[in-house]
Amino acid sequence: MVWKALLLAAGATLVAPPGAHAQDAGGAGALAVSRRHPAYFEDAAGQAVLLVGDYTWGTFSDTDYDFVRMFDALKAAGLNFARVWVWWGCEEFPQTIGRLNRVPYVRPGPGLGNDGRLKYDLGRFDPAFFAHLRDVCAAARDRGIFLQLTLFDAWMIKHADLWKLHAFQRDNNISGVDGDLGDTGVGTDGEKGFCSLGNPGAMAAQKAFTSHVVDAVNEFPNILFEIANENYYNEKWELTLCEFIHELEKGEPRQHLTMPLDVPNHDYGGIKTYDLNELHSALLGARALGKPLIFDTDGIGNPDDATVRKAAWTAFTSGGNIDYLDDSLQPGPEFHGDEEGSKRADLRRQLGHLASVTRLVRFWEMAPGDDMVRGGRAFVLASADEVVAYLPDGGEVGLDVARLAGERNARWLDPRSGEWSDAGQVEGGAVHTFTAPDGSDWVLLLRRAEDGP
Q: In CATH, what class is 2-360?
């Protein structure tokens, strides 16, 4: 595949339960947008997938991170997704961040970069970097976990003290690459900076790196590519690299999704919020895209468990996938959570209760149902057979279940403990009032008797 990249550059789980629909995956062989139900993903076998994840910054990039332990923790909680930074741009962050990063390049010099180490050679890749990337992808695959591989980081390039350490900063490499042709002191120039189409040297190096990543991981069905974290400078640059990946993978065993070309990225359209009404409205508004949407909490902090849990359930019942940036998984000074007790293990278990519901229902046949609410506050996901209603404030809610034909069992799920309780039986075709066990948030599930739970 590397030779193909050179030619191109020269020219420029949650998997559904048993019985879920399976369709011809069209030879893609990897996580894809479902053609029948494009609000959701499907796996390489064509089975519907809803992603519920928990992640941190250094899973791959930290030189001493125990990624196996992290993936085991996700699996134990019933989660199936993690976002993974592949390359930050520098070998070591200042002590205020305190992280030693894996870098894809060798550093033979001559001369020293701004970090006091030998300069990078952007034309020589370190095989150990890509071997480790394969190990991470394989460990996730073996545990049923999908990975969003973030190739570049555009957060770092806006900070002058961090840009000074970047491999694409002119003083740090022997390859003649200057990620700041406009001499702005950072890499954010959308015309001639790191994220631009007006910097041919940087783009050639980015394509060479991208090609090596794609070559290393093409065999894995459990990945999708995100071009960059927090690129606010030139979307066309991202789309160009998305198209480059698609060209690289033509004729290869697997063709992977790219962000933002195939799937909106984590900053899309107001989805990044803990305000439940705003989150719900943003997800509903974005359904017109006909693509899966991911509620990703990067950038909006790490509030208490209840706040995160309520947003996750709101996202699910609004038709979205969920990925929580969990800084308790990150060792060192970057961890800002509660050092006592579980370090958010309780929250991971609560997200796992949500994930268990996605394995019970045929979510890919369901859609948000605001029109069903006839009093009280609830976010509803429904089909002609099943209803999941999330009551963020508990209390009483009226639901018009006219779309349901026949009798349904009603069950309450405590989203904190994962325990179920009986809520009686409901006959479809009318408005019914349901009263939650208390004023906390609760989940109501309506299903045929033979479907359980």
A: alpha beta
